[in-house]
Design brief:
Blueprint lengths: L23 H12 L7 H15 L6 E7 L2 H18 L2 E7 L1 H14 L6 E5 L3 H7 L5 H6 L31 E13 H4 L2 H11 L5 E2 L2 H11 L3 E2 L2 E2 L11 H8 L2 H5 L18 E2 L5 E3 L11 H17 L9 H4 L10 E6 L3 H4 L15 E4 L16 E7 L6 H14 L2 H11 L5 H4 L2 H6 L6 H5 L17 H17 L4 H22 L15 H10 L18 E2 L1 H9 L1
Length: 573
């Protein structure tokens, strides 16, 4: 759930949004005007689902319920279209506030710390799953649906249809959050330039292998070098794009799994165990035991330092000079301007803004000149590791919310994720959460205009993309440390090693405070004794694990590429 400057709202304001409805007659009007055949349910089943909401909502009719999410296209659609429709159909008045992502976390923290009911429900990143599980201030939805919330849980919810439930399930086996929207960060490249015969011939002559989707960072680096400074369509182009300003958004750039792509942490999906992609290690009780290599963590290990150094080197050598001073939101639109050949790290939530008519990266027929593909991996990466980040904004109910208000909010949460509305919502925001939606014919029809997004979500590769996992015991406190440390490395104030040494030490200060406070009980941090890298690497290997890895002498491995069209064919087979 990121990055609120990426979208526009004009296209989603619909005529009925402010109209007064009442019950099934107006549910039918909503289905006629807004849903139509953009649903995995038949019209009869849509009406059946709407009738269930009408009946379940009767005890709460007239209540004023407030929910909150960050501002992205999907949530704008919910706030401006689905919330008024839900209000009209059920009689529950929903105010769906849209604020910045950081503000959502701040409101959530305020409610957790004060016990005051600030909002009745939050769309909150699943990155906080470790926080919610350990602090015990979020309701277990598993327990909620079986007990207090049983009478307001949609029999057609179909949890197994959600593709992100493993991201919102804690080590105790309970579901704590319900996915509302999700998107991945993927490799992005100029498909037209990569298929240009002169480019292919020149690349093969210089590097000795075929220009294609890079499988590893060595190939990505060669491709970045090849395109940087090349003239295409009368413009000087660049082989890479990124951003480097010391700003909170720089933290997302790295907590959103850059280190995992390099090979940091252990094998394991959705997250490495016992060491995750942040470099935080847990014991057999899921207690965090350290972040630094000295305690068996990997935040400052060779794989992490390699990841940071590559980030610094590539931005200096292959990206536009302005990238160094950009934030996330400033850098996001740059590839669509037509001067970037590839980008390692593109959020698929940008898709709608990358396929607009008239852009230099869109053909006259509306098809994109670019494609998404799986991200290449670094030299420390091993089969069985995650390969990138997937953002999962999820409905979260706090225990401090009174039951009746939580029930009414839970009805709304289920309405906006229901099979009745999910296909249409997904076409608006392109943040896919249901398998049935992904397989819907309308997305088969639209896939050629979305640059590989649908092919990726239908592929077996998607399981390697995941959010922050349960090793992180307090996401709000720990995440804010990253941008400061990485900013020092990006600016040159510290070396990559110094920056990561500082980051892991700061993370361990937070872990130590949590341990002393005892606020997370017997699943909170319990710091391990200190030893050197060789000790912890030997210990990991003896237990069949990977992290922390020893330094690899030659970090420039043999470059590998793959033909994009052959890759997609292999998925379909």
């Amino acid at each position: 759930m990121r990055k609120h400057l990426m979208t526009s709202t004009a296209a989603i304001l619909l005529a009925f949004a402010g109209t007064a409805f009442a019950g099934m007659d107006d549910a039918k009007q909503f289905l006629d005007k807004e849903v139509g055949d953009m649903s995995t349910l038949s019209r009869a089943d849509q009406e059946k689902e709407m009738q269930w909401f009408i009946d379940a909502a009767k005890p709460f009719a007239g209540m004023d319920i407030k929910v909150v999410s960050e501002t992205i296209t999907t949530h704008e659609y919910e706030s401006k279209v689905l919330a008024p429709a839900f209000t009209a159909i059920t009689g529950i008045k929903i105010t769906h506030d849209l604020i910045g992502e950081g503000d959502v976390v701040e409101k959530l923290q305020t409610q957790m710390q004060s016990g005051e009911n600030v909002y009745d429900a939050y769309v909150n990143d699943s990155d906080l799953i470790g926080t919610h599980w350990r602090y015990k201030q979020a309701r277990s939805l598993t327990q909620w649906m079986a007990n207090e919330g049983k009478d307001v849980t949609n029999p057609g919810l179909d949890l197994n249809d959600f593709i992100g439930l493993k991201f919102t399930t804690a080590p105790d086996g309970d579901l704590y959050q319900l996915p509302d929207q999700q998107f991945a960060n993927l490799y992005w490249f100029r498909y037209d330039w990569f298929n240009d015969e002169k480019n292919k011939a020149d690349f093969k002559a210089k590097y000795g292998y075929d220009l294609g989707v890079p499988v590893n960072w060595s190939a990505y680096e060669d491709i970045a070098e090849f395109f940087t400074g090349r003239e295409i369509d009368g413009k000087k182009v660049y082989g890479h794009m990124d951003y480097g300003k010391k700003d909170p958004s720089l933290g997302w750039r790295f907590t959103d799994a850059w280190l995992s792509m390099a090979g940091n942490g252990d094998k394991g999906l959705p997250n490495g165990l016992p060491v995750d992609e942040w470099g935080i290690k847990v014991n057999e009780k899921s207690q965090p035991v350290g972040s630094c290599v000295a305690r068996g963590g990997d935040t400052n290990g060779p794989a992490s330092v390699y990841a940071i150094q590559k980030y610094i080197d590539w931005m200096k050598a292959y990206a536009p000079a302005a990238a160094q001073g950009m934030t996330f939101s400033e850098s996001g639109p740059v590839p669509a301007q037509g001067e970037i050949a590839q980008q390692m790290f593109m959020y698929t939530a940008f898709t709608a803004d990358m396929v607009k008519d008239g852009l230099p990266v869109v053909n006259e027929d509306g098809s994109p000149k670019w494609r998404f593909a799986p991200s290449p991996h670094g030299v420390y990466w091993k089969d069985g590791m995650k390969l990138g980040y997937q953002d999962v904004g999820s409905w979260t109910l706090l225990k401090s919310t009174p039951d009746d208000r939580a029930k009414a909010a839970w009805l709304y949460a289920q309405f906006v994720t229901s099979k009745t509305v999910d296909v249409k919502k997904s076409h608006v925001g392109l943040t896919l959460i249901r398998e049935s939606t992904i397989q819907h014919k309308s997305f088969t029809d639209r896939a050629p205009k979305l640059g590989g997004l649908i092919e990726f979500y239908r592929s077996p590769a998607r399981v390697q993309w995941s959010p922050t996992g349960t090793n992180v015991p307090d996401y709000p406190k720990l995440a804010q440390l990253w941008w400061q440390a990485i900013g020092d490395a990006s600016s040159g104030a510290k070396t990559a090693q110094e920056a990561m040494d500082s980051l892991c030490a700061e993370q361990e200060k937070v872990l130590s405070r949590l341990e002393r406070a005892g606020v997370q009980g017997d699943i909170g941090p319990k710091l391990a004794d200190e030893h050197d890298l060789a000790y912890w690497n030997a210990d990991a290997v003896a237990k069949g694990n990977v992290a922390p890895q020893l330094q690899i002498e030659n970090e420039k491995e043999k470059p590998l590429t793959i033909n994009y069209d052959e890759l997609v064919k292999s998925w379909q087979q």
